[in-house]
Amino acid sequence: MSMILLAEQVLNGLQLGVMLFVMAAGLTLVFGVMGLINLAHGSLFMIGAFAAAAVAGATGSFLLALAAALAASAAVGALVEVVVIRRLYNRDHLDQVLATFALILIFSEGTRWLFGSFPLFLNIPPYLAGPVSLPGGIEYPMYRLTLIAVGLLIALGLFLLISRTRLGIQIRAGENDREMIAALGVDISRLYTIVFAIGAGLAGLAGALVGAIQSVQVGMGEPVLILAFVVIVIGGIGSIKGALIAALLVGLTDTLGGVLLPALFKQFMEASAATSVGSSLASMAIYILMAVVLIWRPTGLFGARG
Amino acid sequence: MTDPMMTDPVLETRGISKTFGALQASKDISLTLMPGEIHALIGPNGAGKSTLIKQIAGGLRPDAGQVFLQGREVTGLDTPARARLGLGRTFQISALAMEDTVLQNAVLGALGASGRPFRFWRAALGDKDLRARAQDALERVGLQEHAATRTAELSHGQRRQLEVAVALTLRPKAFVMDEPMAGLGTGGSLRLTGFLDGLRAEAPILLVEHDMDAVFALADRISVLVYGEVIATGTVEEIRANPDVRSAYLGDEA
Amino acid sequence: MITMTRETLFNLAMMAALILFPLWAWLADEPFMITLATKAVILALAGVGLNIALGLGGLVSLGHAAFFGIGGYAMGILASHAQNYTPLIETPFLIEGTKSMPVIWLVAVICSGLAALAIGALSLRTSGVYFIMITLAFGQMLFFFTISWPAYGGEDGLSIYVRNGFPGLNTLDPIQFYGICFALLALVLFFAARLARSPFGLALNAARQTAERVETVGISPYKLRLTAFVVSGMITGLAGALFADLNRFISPTMFSWQTSGEIMIFVIIGGVARLFGPVVGAVIFIALEHLLGGLSDYWHIYLGVLLLLIVLFARGGVIGTLTGREVAHD
């Protein structure tokens, strides 16, 4: 296998990883601060993608489309938090799972009702289209490279938000002691709505960004949601740092596994069998990674020790 | 009571230490629980009593030191294994199956004692042996009238009694009781004091308790734990007279 | 005690309905109605399986599609080899496919039990929200595996042309196949009722409420839960084999997270931790799918709203609301 192909796969892995991080960051924040497991996070990803596709279709502007994705998903997130989610904070996880599962059904079918069952397409803007030449003779799509950069910028922004701002202090306090922040005079229900809306906005933004390299359709959110779950289980629930490291680990494992495992099996198997065994195993690679991490550390790499 | 120096301890810790980050919760703690005695463990809040109890009962592994039950080292065993070897424990905050009846809670204890919980067919409450053992324990704490009551409907005091009853079904070799008097009124406290007084003949009790009247009435020996360290062990009189104890602990209350 | 009898009466009425409705459909020559009833009974069986882990053990597994799918694929793999006259394995010894239901059931139950043992052993090292996410992830792992595994149809799934056989019965006759499924459901319900009252059930139920207490009487909550998870997986696997036989088709959809979610939904709609909760829930689910699905293509919206209302306002599910005894959960 050529080094160029390998380098491309590493970049693909990074791109998948940073997008997973943007998804997982919202999930892990919401769980860390409010103790809520939100299955409908994937729906917010989908809403962002649809909002972007609709606005891009109407205006032709990709940046406007991204802004619409962010605004729509954050607004839907805030609305859902106020109407449904805040009734769930003091419920057990089973209720949270069921209610947010119900939200998935409502959002998925609602979107199908509004937009129909056919996939929409969100085009990469011309100034980001085409390949770019990297050192070492690697040709890599400009758009995917942009995704990596944007994802890392978002990660940096989140770290700054949490470590440097007033809101960040409140979020960190909320993770440790809910009663204390109430005692400090912070309006908890407003804080929760803001945190949920931030998570929702990030998910919607990720949906719009990823929507340009795949089709925008109902049900696109859940596979990403489950990958994001794997990420926060590996990283440790509530840890943003853990989410970033785990997201990159998962992204790289998934893409490299798809290339390396079939190649590995070709060393001692007949080619077509090696491809089928290798790709079957590769499809399970990130889950095997998760199992290994759990055997080693049941609360994830950076989770609070139980 | 027999002379503690002449027999082997039922329960013993040797040099137990445990740190959480910068906090040393247990410092080289060596305690013995002799046959027939009630050994009270007292100390101010945050002295490390709960941490010590967890290390003895199995919820927490000490960083250093050993725990022995009837001369057998149990340091590496988990809570269920220690319970099967004869350690009966009650909790400071009642840990009971609240949706179940009082009898079901007691049968759970009997089931643990039977060593055969993995039976899938015959009804648990239909098993004569389990039932007899459970009812016997309920009678001893005076809860037989409430066997069919849902545990959530019991008063606080009755829940404390049920805690003790579940431990009794195990017929343990040693009891570890974490504040059994907590939240009881004077009457309830006195009744439980009387009961524990008789219980020591069956199996010795390591008693963590804040109720000083109960401690002074019951204890054969008292150990005082301050900042994770045993600063004194002795009879009630010795502890009362000990100047260190007075300044570190009793002085605060007097 | 009065509400207990009310629930028992309700259960008996439910059993009667499950006998009378298909009988009516048979007499009225409505085979489609029999098929609907069969689907409800099979899904109920899957739910009874999940309810042992969820209701009795408090284990919120979002990955039970894994066992449903394994049961289905056990049927599909064995039957496809039998219909193609190709052996399953030749070395080290010969294993042939089969079209015999009892053999298929046995294989489905064993395979899903082994999978539950492996998945449970790992997942039960964690608890709470980790457990939910991990079971979901393991289900998804098998979903992607079946999609990328070309031998048995991959993404497209696999058709079995003739329904498998049961000695002495014509399984192609809808009412006879219904009878088989109903009998299995009745047997498993009887087993589940015994299990709930058994020493194991008592200890498992206590471990859900207070694991600490169970430990201090010398019983390992981990072993209780793992056992419950395995039993639960086996029953759901059996349901998967029947479901595949009903449709004469298997596909990765059986493994999808939506399948896990739907099984959990009707357990909750009916009433969690109640013997007949999954049965009532499955019947309502199938009825809604049939009635609302006929009215609107978007019936999942109504299902979503119904589920949301039940979760927020009627935690005892339908049985709890009708018979008035709430199951406390906190």
From TrEMBL, chain A:
Subcellular location(s): the record lists: Cell membrane
- GO biological process terms on file: amino acid transport
- Transmembrane residues, as ranges? 12-32, 39-56, 62-85, 97-122, 142-162, 191-213, 219-237, 244-265, 277-296
Q: What is its main location?
A: membrane
| Any one GO MF annotation of this record | transmembrane transporter activity
UniProt lists the family membership as follows: Belongs to the binding-protein-dependent transport system permease family. LivHM subfamily.
Task: Tell me what this protein is called.
Answer: High-affinity branched-chain amino acid transport system permease protein LivH
> What organism is listed for this UniProt entry?
Pelagimonas phthalicica
Automatic annotation (TrEMBL), chain B:
Q: Which InterPro entries match?
A: AAA+_ATPase, ABC_AA/LPS_Transport, ABC_transporter-like_ATP-bd, BCA_ABC_TP_C, P-loop_NTPase
Q: Which residues form the ABC transporter domain?
A: 11-252
* A Pfam family the protein falls into: ABC_tran
Class of this enzyme? hydrolase
Q: Which of UniProt's keywords are assigned here?
A: ATP-binding, Hydrolase, Nucleotide-binding, Transport
Q: Which domain of life is it from?
A: Bacteria
E.C. code: 3.6.3.25
PROSITE patterns, per this entry? ABC_TRANSPORTER_2
What are its GO cellular component terms?
A: plasma membrane
| GO MF annotation terms | ATP binding; ATP hydrolysis activity
What's this protein's name?
Sulfate/thiosulfate import ATP-binding protein CysA
What taxonomic classification does the UniProt entry list for its organism? Answer: Bacteria, Pseudomonadati, Pseudomonadota, Alphaproteobacteria, Rhodobacterales
UniProtKB/TrEMBL annotation, chain C:
One Pfam family this chain carries? BPD_transp_2
Query: Gene Ontology terms, cellular component aspect?
Result: plasma membrane
InterPro entries referenced in this protein's UniProt entry, alphabetically: ABC_transp_permease, LivM-like
For this protein, the record's CDD domains field holds: TM_PBP1_LivM_like
Location(s), subcellular? Cell membrane
Write out the entry's keywords from A to Z: Cell membrane, Membrane, Transmembrane, Transmembrane helix
Top-rank taxon, per record: Bacteria
Q: Does the keyword GTP-binding apply?
A: no
Q: What is its main location?
A: membrane
Q: Does the keyword Transmembrane helix apply?
A: yes
The membrane-topology field of this record reads:
Multi-pass membrane protein
GO molecular function terms listed in the Swiss-Prot or TrEMBL record: branched-chain amino acid transmembrane transporter activity
Entry's transmembrane regions: 9-27, 33-53, 65-83, 103-122, 129-152, 175-193, 226-243, 263-288, 300-322
Q: Could you identify this protein by its name? A: Leucine/isoleucine/valine transporter permease subunit
Q: Which species is this UniProt entry from? A: Pelagimonas phthalicica
